[in-house]
Amino acid sequence: MRIVVLGAGVVGVAAAWYLAADGHEVTVIDRQSGPALETSFANGGQISASHAEPWANPDAPLTILKWLGRADAPLLFRLTADRRQWRWALQFLLECLPSRTRRNTVQCLNLALYSRSCLQALRAATGIEYDQQTRGILEFYTDARAHARAAQAAELIRAHGCDRQVLTADGCVAIEPALAPCRRRIAGGIYTATDESGDARRFTQELARLAQARGAVFRWGITVEALLAEGNTVRGASCRGGRDREPRCREAIAADAYVVSLGSYSPFVLVPIGVPAPIYPVKGYSATIAIGDCRGAPTVSLTDLERKLVFSRLGERLRIAGTAELSGYGTTLDPVRCNALVDRTFDLFPDAGLRESAQFWAGLRPAVPSNVPLVGGTRYRNLFVDTGHGTLGWTMACGSGRALADVIAGRKPDVEFAFTSGG
Ligand SMILES: Cc1cc2nc3c(=O)[nH]c(=O)nc-3n(C[C@H](O)[C@H](O)[C@H](O)COP(=O)(O)OP(=O)(O)OC[C@H]3O[C@@H](n4cnc5c(N)ncnc54)[C@H](O)[C@@H]3O)c2cc1C
């Protein structure tokens, strides 16, 4: 089959890889000049099945209220006049019901665990390098009550196949000695030895190269404006631009099937043809610091639950990422948020790296209120979605791509997951 994948972030490129492996003629279209130049550019780097519990959980409404009005709040709703945003926020509140949270956690966990094994298999088969670390993820807590609550919640994750170890403060330092300077502030931790980390951008670039070697074609600088639907079939993607063309030049790109992986922008092509896509951008920040000769940077990927920050060692760099802001499609950098990332880093790890080398970035998580991504078919027989991965797009990209290739081939995917369908 000729399949067009719309979007060359980590999700679209992973789908293209598995579709090319199935022998399809794959073309990937993206408005940027290369892979992973939007949300997959500088994320937190964690492959974290252990973080399957969505933001929409019973504690979230109170936490959001507590942080309301604080410019450096880790989680911030800045409501605007956009009706889509209000609808998303209300749906988010509904997903905070305990029964919904439980269901969403299990869905995300299943896909994340499957995805981690797909990534490991892909790595073994191709030798792909992306500054990966396979030393687990350690969550640490500075509040004893929060640690006790998390230890209880870890049970659900453990019961579904993700082994999480509850640790004392000394246990945390034994796993990551870089935590020693802040040992007295740590109440405890939870360690998932099987989780991983790595540079999602480097991975996406390398995988695009490997997919190209398998015959996939990448077309850069092309903006998808609409999908052209007729009856229950998509006939083409109406596009603008192209590297050697007039930016206003239009073409309709036709194929036998289409996969939408446009991240936060997916609703703009799906909703006009009646495909539900409750995706809204949730802005996050990262800082990348050169380590230089400093000796105090962590190597185990860490999550600081108090500030909702993650730390991942990417070769000779340390990536710090976090904050969630529901404020629309802007990606301008707010200095208060940028400084909050580095201040916390050097507060915890005084010898982590070269502060003045910090490079800041902001990206838009393509978030659905439940955090359960949209993967599978639609009401159109040849239109598929692989999008809405929110906080876990890097974690879930390989599994989503592998499973979608199965759905398209009419095979039963190897993972228990609520795939979308036309029904
Ligand atoms: C601060 C931060 C930290 C994060 N940390 C983690 C983490 O530690 N672990 C984890 O698993 N996930 C993490 N995430 C989430 C993860 O980065 C995303 O879920 C993932 O990158 C989404 O990938 P994507 O391919 O769906 O979207 P994108 O990477 O945004 O790709 C979409 C592509 O579509 C293209 N596009 C959009 N519209 C059009 C159009 N009209 N025409 C043509 N092309 C178009 C874009 O150019 C882009 O290349 C983090 C996100 C942020 C912001």
Brief synopsis:
By secondary structure, this protein is of the alpha/beta class. The protein has helices spanning 10-21, 60-67, 83-95, 98-126, 144-159, 169-175, 200-213, 267-270, 335-348, 393-409, and strands spanning 2-6, 25-29, 46-47, 75-77, 137-141, 165-167, 188-192, 196-197, 217-219, 222-230, 233-241, 250-253, 257-260, 280-290, 301-304, 309-314, 317-326, 359-367, 374-377, 383-387.
Please characterize this protein's 3D structure.
- By secondary structure, this protein is of the alpha/beta class.
- 32% of the residues lie in helices and 26% in strands.
- The chain is built from 10 helices and 20 strands.
- It has helices spanning 10-21, 60-67, 83-95, 98-126, 144-159, 169-175, 200-213, 267-270, 335-348, 393-409; strands at 2-6, 25-29, 46-47, 75-77, 137-141, 165-167, 188-192, 196-197, 217-219, 222-230, 233-241, 250-253, 257-260, 280-290, 301-304, 309-314, 317-326, 359-367, 374-377, 383-387.
- The strands form 4 sheets. Strands 4, 5, 6, 7, 14, 15, 16, 17 and 18 form a 9-stranded mixed sheet that branches. The protein has a 6-stranded mixed sheet with strand order 9-2-1-13-20-19, with helices on one face. It has a 3-stranded antiparallel sheet with strand order 10-11-12.
- A hairpin with a 4-residue loop joins strand 15 (301-304) and strand 16.
- The longest helix has 29 residues, at 98-126.
- The radius of gyration is 21 Å and the shape is globular.
- The two termini are 24 Å apart.
- It binds flavin-adenine dinucleotide.
- Residues 7-12, 29-32, 37-40, 43-46, 48, 223-224, 261-263, 265, 284-286, 310, 321, 363, 365-366, 387, 389-395 line the site of flavin-adenine dinucleotide.
